[in-house]
Amino acid sequence: MERVVEAIYENGVLTPLESLDLPEHQRLVITIRLPGTEDPDQALEAWHQVYEGLSEEEIVEIESIALRRNHFMRQGS
């Protein structure tokens, strides 16, 4: 299981900002990533992979669906 949780570091202790709902003494592997430190080149590469293997027509269809706000927002009746 992988989960992203924000935490704060104070007095040598990492404290999660939300409940972890884990059993006592559960061992974890923690990756530390400071907010806003993502490498822009890595982010761009990740976004390029979103459309990898799709035809131009499929990309146009996906983007037109994404731009239709009523697809994602409830419209009042």
Fold blueprint:
Blueprint: E1 7-10, E2 13-16, H1 40-50, H2 56-67
Antiparallel strand pairs: 1-2
Task: Please tell me the overall pLDDT.
Answer: 85
Q: What is the distance, rounded to the nearest whole angstrom, between the alpha carbons of the first and last residues? A: 41 Å
Can you count the helices? Answer: 2
Determine the fraction of residues in helical runs and give it as a percent range.
25-40%
Basic shape: elongated
- What is the number of beta strands? 2
Catalogue the unreliable spans: none
The share of residues in extended strands comes to 5-15%
Largest sheet: 2 strands, antiparallel
What are the secondary-structure elements, in order, as H or E?
EEHH
Cα-atom radius of gyration: 20 Å
Structural class by sheet pairing and helices = alpha+beta
Total domains: 1
Strand order of the largest sheet: 1-2
